[in-house]
Structures are given as C-alpha cells and as structure tokens.
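Example record

One chain of 429 residues, shown exactly as stored in the release files.
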Amino acid sequence: MKIVLDLHLHSRYSRACSPQLTLEGIDSACRVKGVGVVATGDFTYPAWFSALKNELTEIACPTRLTASHGGRGQSGLYKLKNSADDKIKFLLSTELSLIYKAGGKARRIHLVVHAPNLSAVAELNEFLDKHYNIRSDGRPILGMSAPDLVKLCLKIHPEFLIYPAHIWTPWFSVFGSKSGFDSLEECFGDETGNIYAYETGLSSDPEMNWRVSALDKLTLLSNSDAHSPANIAREANVFELGEFSYAEIYNIIKSKQSEKILYTIEFYPEEGMYHFDGHRDCGFSCEPAEALKLKGICPKCGRPLTIGVANRVEELADNPAGRRPEGASDFKKLVELDKIIAECLNIKSRQSKQVQAEYHKLIKALGSELYILIDAPLDKIKTASNGRVAEAIKRVRAGELIIRPGYDGRYGEVRIFADNEKEVQKSLF
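Predicted structure tokens for this chain:
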C-alpha cells in the first residue's frame, strides 16, 4: 500500500499555530492533501492529550499480535471516533525543545518523538509533568539533555522513536550554527546507536544531506512541521506499507528499509527561511562563499550574520555536491498547489477567496493535492482548470523556477513565471 506520511506537525496548543489545528481539522486537511498517516503532534500538552484519548480510537490490526502494542490486534495507529472511515490514521507524536549545557556551551535542539501507544505517552507525560513545565506550550521546553531524553523514553517503552528535527536549522537543531553540535555522537553520546533517523527540515533537501557520510546509516525523513492545516504535507514521506501499524512504520525507519521508502516530498530548500546566510534587519543575504569573505559579519551594520543551512552543510560535508549514497531513496520537490494558483492569478495571498475557490475546484475534479502535483496528467489539469495552471505544474515538476533564497528567518521567494510572462489575466479563470 503506497501511503503518504507526515510525521511532524503541531496542534492549536503550540505557540504561533492555527486554531484550526484540531483533530477534525487535521483529518479534513489530510483528506484534501492526500496524506494517509499523520502525526498527532504535541502529545505532552495535557489538554491535547485529553483530546487524543477522548476523540481517537485505536485501529485494529489483525496481523499484529504483540502485547507491546496494547494487546491482540492493536495497531498503535488511531482514527477519529466520529469518522465514518479510517482513511486518516494518526500516529502519536510530539516535538520537544531541549535547552541545556554540554561541552561548555548552551545547547538548544528540537527532537521529534513518536510513541507506540497511549499508555506509553501517559507514563512519559507523568514523569515530565513532575519535573518540567509541559503546560505552557504544546512544544514544551525541557531542561534535560538529549541522551537523558532518549534513555527516559526507551526505559518507558523500547519502541519509542526519537530523532533530530529540522537537523540543520541555525536555531534549535542538532547541527545548527547557533547552538548545535558537529556530530551526532557529540550530541547523543552513548545513546547515538538508538537514533535511527533525522528530519531534513525545509531549508535542506536530500542532496545536501547526502554530502555528510555520517548520515548515510540513518533514515532520511521529511515532514511538514506544519503550524496550520494549509501547510500539512508541504514535506512528507511516501512509504510502501505491508500493514497499517506503528510497528510496521517503526521497523521501516529503524532498519532503514529503503525498498519501502519510495520517496520523500520536499520543499525547494531555497524557499526555507534559513537556507542562505544573512541579516534580516538589514535585508542582506549571501552565499556561503561570500559570508566567508565577510568573516561572517554583516557589511551593513557590522553585526554577525545568521549562518544558514547551506553554509553549515558546507562546513560539515565530507563529500562533494552530487554524491548519492548507495540505496538512497528518491525525492520530489514541490510547490504547494494554492501557491501555484495564486501566482497564476497574480494574487499575493494563497488564502484569497478566488485562489481557494480554484483550488477546491481542482481537488473536486481530479483528487488530492499531492496527486495533482505529482501524478495527474497535464491534459487533465488543463481541462479542469486551464493551460496556465498546467504549465505551472509542469515547470514545478521539472524544477524550472526562479528562486530567491530565504535567510535569517525570512522565507525565500519561489516564482514560476518571469515578469514578462504575467500578461495573462485573472479572466482566464
């Protein structure tokens, strides 16, 4: 079964997140996007965990007999109780923010945590609630080290899955230029062997990560880290599942079963908000080579630049660009459908009524957003919308884009059509 999985997002209880990120809102968005397995996000937050217990029910899995997944036939995946089907399956997940000192430096990293069942989450939450503040935000800040967190989770249940979130982001990541480490061993110590995956983040893609051979043994994952329903599946994973169970997903990731990881869905990394080096206050950005010449100092104000992902990859890379590890899974770079439509309409906001009307017209006519972006025949897209949208999707698939890279917390700009191609008016729609 070919299934899209988005394994990292947030709930309405996380800071700067949409109030529409309820379980029903996530379920509804996944049906439109084409996602089959989605993270719950934020399971440490008491009100959200209560919602998970009250609004979800575990899906039966006839082939899963181990007691570790809650008893005979339990899958470790969940559906909405009031849903007529189990098309959308929830996987228990959260992101934890760790701030602590190690190696004489302050470290700030984010880790993704997946849990095999609700009882394991309840035990973890009980411990964290006694020792830390998990009630102030859906993504809590914990004053504990990465190795200690891994030990804690695995002591509770051996099939907790923990891995670095957005691995290169300057702030709050394992390899971040501001507070990260230079190796996984430096971060996780004796627990490094229990780290089986990493998340690319929006500002890097597989090709960038393939330059670091230390990552070859781990499973590369891409997730949306969505703060609103519209951003679900902007990055995702496409697996071939033999059964719908947490154990199946866990084993694919732990054992790096490349034949079952068909491809990842990627943001164009230049669009990520930390791809290049720069200083947002001064509106200045540059490539790594230029930052080196500047000695990391902003030429406009004399303060340090925020060193971005491209530079940090260059610093830690032990392989040239273009290297592909043996057995590496494929990937596909996309631009979200409503962004494509907005550009075709010459409208700035992807949330405008006209853009959303065209978006839902296409979904109704052709199927999910990911199907339209990846697989739908261009002639069918042209029939359901018009030639301009079909041409735009064709260019996105081919990577024929005009991109201004993001930097220092500012998203990059991705354009499909040049200025001299914008004579086509909204009346085409």
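Notes: Residues 118-131 form the longest helix (14 residues).
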